[in-house]
Structure to design on (688 residues):
């Protein structure tokens, strides 16, 4: 119901806009179909991305559209359910979508990409980072905007070993989804390949909010690790860091983009939010990209409040990259756009991006943003590109 | 020695929280013979109240009291919105209305606040630790344990010594008979929802005290825990719910401590296998409760 209304509103807005520039008026709009989840466990990542994408669509239309055509974004709530996401994609494709924006994470975005592939369309996930999100498993027209976990894990490992000389690690893996599991796996590979030693690996179940057994095992180890790599998801990251710090484990904590959550930073606060580093998509300031302040302004104008997470950038980037590829291809034909994405190089808010060809899995060669948390306040350390990325 | 003591404290503090969650669920079930699936959202309401009050200068205890009051209010509202209009009609209808109410509350939070987590103010003491016989333990765990012992005691007293408690027990045993003897049905049911909300509010504070943030889906885990604990303990017995809560915590913690890394990935499979075994052995749960199970 809510989405129908939103779509109707979107339709009206497009009509109003289309009446403006004469050039774009006669041509059909380019339709971006989104199956982003506005409800359920995926909503914290997908909703910001969709909001960022809305800003990008407005920006494109205000500046003459793409190929002289207006751009229209239609989203059907994927409800954080793989089957619903797939059905939403089918409905969007039947409704004339030219390109598909797929949800974050392989588990939820995969179904949308599979439908796009079988309809011969390009599908791009806004932030799926598991290497399963590749042309190998999804097809030759499927991409993800995010770096893979191979890059994310390797960046963390090289930061620990080369920049800080942290040689021993304690690794905790949440068994929640493909993302949490593969992130630890690639950190471990890169860390041991670089000469580090994993003192202890432990397993955690998402939602437990109880880390005592793991702590007992860590304490039984006798020695303290130089660094703690914690691959978890959602609120559990905060509660685990809290549990570790409370009993005196003050070693630096490393993690992935799931840490990019201002509420967690605030909840950890001055007392527990120290010496935490994470590898993520971008930093919401001019240090990350000169165009970032402009995006934040546009976002604030459109949504009435500044972004509350950096994940909004992934939506903006996805739409802008789609537009750039369609311009380069000269059409919305799936194969032509896929080729344009493979051949192009993109300078995005979330880092420079260059895809491998379909035989190379569409591996995203991308820089990673490194963020530091001190006193509950995040700060940008810089862009990092790991030297040795483990094979997926 | 240290290891054993750590284990005992873990089981007791986790079990205390689980027992309170289960008790809040079973108090409504005992009378109506209906599971309130919007129970988890009462915890969410407490959490978001804390978030919304977070900017104010109120002392933490006042915020906590308001949060518990809001959660009680939400409990009573559940009765009025989801249960009372369809209570007499069919079980299926109430099942669906309680699910609907749960979805409604979650989506209100999603729409009007955010799908992303929001921070909740915690008092200093929730972050302190104490050392007991060489074991470093967060004070929070001891508070959880103390709060559960205190509340379980108060609750037992309420049910045995007060008119309201006796009337509620009577209604739980045989609702129609209790009504015939002059027990006001609506008042009893509303009270049950209010107490359920009170327990959810307190548990919410303790549960969110472990996490530090609140999201629209925060109630799912506690609802699941409460449901499993009451099923093990016996759906119709309040002491069963408490026993079930502690037993569930014991199972979980034991598995967490003893399973090897390769097996720990499948911990939930082991937990639920044990739950199934318990149910095969005692299909009614560990404690049977009153003999009649007739729904009103």
């Amino acid at each position: 119901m809510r989405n129908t209304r939103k779509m109707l509103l979107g339709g009206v807005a497009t009509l109003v806009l289309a009446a403006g520039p004469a050039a774009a008026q006669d041509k059909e709009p380019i339709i971006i179909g989104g199956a982003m989840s506005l409800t359920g466990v995926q909503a914290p990542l997908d909703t910001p991305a969709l909001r960022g994408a809305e800003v990008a669509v407005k920006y494109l239309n205000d500046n003459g559209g793409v190929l002289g055509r207006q751009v229209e974004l239609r989203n059907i709530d994927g409800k954080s359910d793989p089957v619903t996401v797939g059905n939403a994609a089918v409905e969007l494709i039947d409704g004339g979508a030219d390109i598909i924006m797929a949800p974050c994470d392989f588990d939820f975005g995969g179904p949308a990409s599979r439908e796009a592939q079988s309809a011969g369309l390009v599908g791009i996930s806004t932030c799926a980072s598991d290497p399963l999100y590749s042309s190998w498993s999804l097809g030759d027209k499927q991409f993800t905007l995010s770096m893979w976990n191979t890059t994310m894990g390797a960046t963390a490992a090289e930061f620990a070993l080369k920049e800080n000389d942290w040689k021993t690690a304690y690794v905790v893996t949440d068994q929640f989804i493909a993302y949490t599991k593969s992130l630890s796996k690639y950190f471990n590979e890169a860390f041991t390949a670089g000469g580090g030693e994993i003192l202890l690996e432990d397993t955690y179940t998402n939602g437990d909010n109880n880390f005592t057994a793991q702590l007992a095992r860590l304490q039984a180890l006798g020695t303290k690790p130089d660094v703690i790599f914690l691959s978890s998801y959602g609120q559990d990251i905060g509660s685990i860091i809290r549990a570790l710090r409370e009993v005196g484990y003050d070693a630096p904590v490393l993690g992935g983009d799931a840490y990019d959550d201002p509420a967690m930073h605030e909840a950890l606060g001055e007392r527990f939010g120290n010496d935490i580093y994470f590898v993520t998509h971008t930093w919401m300031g001019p240090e990350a990209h000169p165009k970032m302040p402009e995006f934040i302004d546009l976002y604030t104008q459109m949504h009435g409040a500044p972004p509350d997470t950096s994940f909004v950038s992934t939506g903006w980037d996805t739409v802008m990259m789609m537009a750039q590829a369609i311009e380069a291809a000269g059409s919305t034909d799936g194969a032509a756009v896929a080729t344009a994405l493979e051949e192009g190089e993109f300078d995005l808010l979330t880092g420079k991006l260059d895809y491998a060809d379909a035989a190379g899995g569409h591996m995203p060669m991308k820089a990673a943003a490194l963020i530091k948390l001190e006193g509950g306040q995040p700060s940008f350390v810089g862009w990092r590109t790991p030297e040795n990325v483990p094979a997926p | 020695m240290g290891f054993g003591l750590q284990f005992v404290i873990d089981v007791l503090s986790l079990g205390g929280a689980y027992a309170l969650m289960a008790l809040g669920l079973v108090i409504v079930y005992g009378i109506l013979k209906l599971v309130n699936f919007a129970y988890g959202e009462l915890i969410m309401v407490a959490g978001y109240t804390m978030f919304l009050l977070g900017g104010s200068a109120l002392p933490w205890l006042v915020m906590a009291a308001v949060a518990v009051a809001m959660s009680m209010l939400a409990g009573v509202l559940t009765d009025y919105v989801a249960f009372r209009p369809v209570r007499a009609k069919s079980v299926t209808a109430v099942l669906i209305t309680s699910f609907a109410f749960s979805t409604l509350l979650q989506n209100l939070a999603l729409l009007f606040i955010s799908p992303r987590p929001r921070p909740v103010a915690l008092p200093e003491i929730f972050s302190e630790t104490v050392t007991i016989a060489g074991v470093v333990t967060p004070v929070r765990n001891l508070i959880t344990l103390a709060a559960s012992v205190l509340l379980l005691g108060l609750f037992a007293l309420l049910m045995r010594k007060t008119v309201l408690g006796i009337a509620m027990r009577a209604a739980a045993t045989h609702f129609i008979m209790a009504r015939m003897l002059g027990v006001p049905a609506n008042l009893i049911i509303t009270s049950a929802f209010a107490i359920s909300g009170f327990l959810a509010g307190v548990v919410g504070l303790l549960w969110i005290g472990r996490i530090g943030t609140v999201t629209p889906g925060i109630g799912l885990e506690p609802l699941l825990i409460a449901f499993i604990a009451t099923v093990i303990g016996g759906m119709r017995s309040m002491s069963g719910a408490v026993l079930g809560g502690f037993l569930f915590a014991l199972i979980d913690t034991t598995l967490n401590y003893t399973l090897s890394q390769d097996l720990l990935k499948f911990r939930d499979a082991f937990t639920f296998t044990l739950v199934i075994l318990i149910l095969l052995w005692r299909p009614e749960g560990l404690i049977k409760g009153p003999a009649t199970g007739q729904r009103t």
